[in-house]
Amino acid sequence: ETAVLPSLSADGGMSPEDFRIPREKTAGAYADGAKRFEVTVRALHEGVKEIPPLAFSWFDPQRQEFQTTRSPPVALSVRPAQVVTAEDVVSAAPPAVQEQQSEREAGADRELSSESGAGGRSTTRRPMFSFTGADLAITTDIQSLLRPRGSVLASAGVQAIAYGVGLLTMLLALLSRRRALADPAELARAKELSAQRAAVAKAGKVTEVSDALRRLVATSGIHPPAEWDSFLAECDAYAFAPGGASRVLDEPMRVRALALADQLLKGNNR
Fold first, then answer.
1. Tens digits of per-residue pLDDT, 125-141?
2. How far is residue 264 from each of residues 42, 203, 216, 222, 227, measured CA to CA in Å?
3. How far apart are the C-alpha atoms of 200 and 220, rounded to whole Å?
4. pLDDT at 122
5. CA 171, CA 199: separation in Å to the nearest integer?
6. CA 220 to chain centre
7. What's the rounded Cα separation, in Å, for the pair 27 and 182?
8. Which segments of 142-183 does DSSP mark as H helices, in order?
9. What residues contact residue 14 under an 8 Å CB cut-off, 6+ apart?
10. Residue 243 burial by CB count (10 A; 0-12/13-18/19+): exposed, middle or buried?
11. Are 252 and 234 in contact (CB under 8 A)?
């Protein structure tokens, strides 16, 4: 349930030059003992011939090492997209209907302005309602328009509080919606990562901090850097030495363990 989908471009996967890959994380759906991820990608040019193998890594607690599997490549045939130009635009009305409409509009213009040959006078039809030059203001008293309606509502402090309450309400609504739409498995995974980080901080022995770091890596699903292996190897050397099971964790090693845990959590949140 805590499995996460790694980046599709990781470990020689889809190149950003060949595929358009979503930047946001994909929340999978867990059902019937399996977790399914659906991602929409797009080929960017005709030279793309296949979907390359995608890597998935995880920590095997029995072997005490990371395992990686890859999907088989999928052949593709990419063709150029059709570009729609102005010549391809089709009008919704047939040409005959367009010509009739144009003639009706031209006839209406001629009726609005016509001349009579008998009297030599010109008569112009004007619209029934004309707002040219009309004064639509309710009042001409400028001072009454600029005068504040009330001293309380005009107060800058009250307005600032009103705006602040509105913004806070919007923020709380967004957070509530985001929490409601969050994947339950992702929330459980984040809770487990926080618990393991706390276990690293509270560890009193070398074996305890080593176990907490290994569980942290397994839950995150991220391949740790080289310094992780060297630090865990150092912890194992202390643990398997005579009396190592009861060896107290000194402060320098605790600081190093916390730094590694924070580094992994920072990479997981990207």
1. 554 545 455 555 555 66
2. 30, 18, 8, 8, 12
3. 15
4. 47
5. 32
6. 20
7. 8
8. 142-146, 156-181
9. 8, 21, 41, 51, 52, 54
10. exposed
11. no
Whether the model clears a pTM of 0.70, i.e. scores above it, the answer is: no
Listed in sequence order, the residues at least 6 apart from 131 whose beta carbon sits closer than 8 Å to its beta carbon are: none
Q: Which of 22, 14, 19 is nearest to 55 (CA)?
A: 14
The predicted model gives 236-257 an average pLDDT of: 80
In the block, residue with structure tokens 């010109």 = 122
Q: What is the longest distance spanned by two Cα atoms in the chain?
A: 127
Encoded tokens for 141: 């008293």
Q: Residue type for 146, please?
A: L
Backbone φ, ψ for residue 205 (5° rounding): -125, 160
- With CA atoms as reference, report the closest residue to 265 among 179, 190, 178, 188: 190
Counting DSSP H helices and E strands in the chain, the numbers are 7, 10
Name the average pLDDT for the chain. Answer: 76
Would you state the pLDDT for residue 72?
93
Amino acid identity at 243? G
Compute the distance between CA of residue 210 and CA of residue 231 in angstroms, rounded to an integer: 9
pLDDT, tens digit, 9 for 90 and up, residues 171-205: 888 877 776 666 677 777 788 888 888 888 888 88
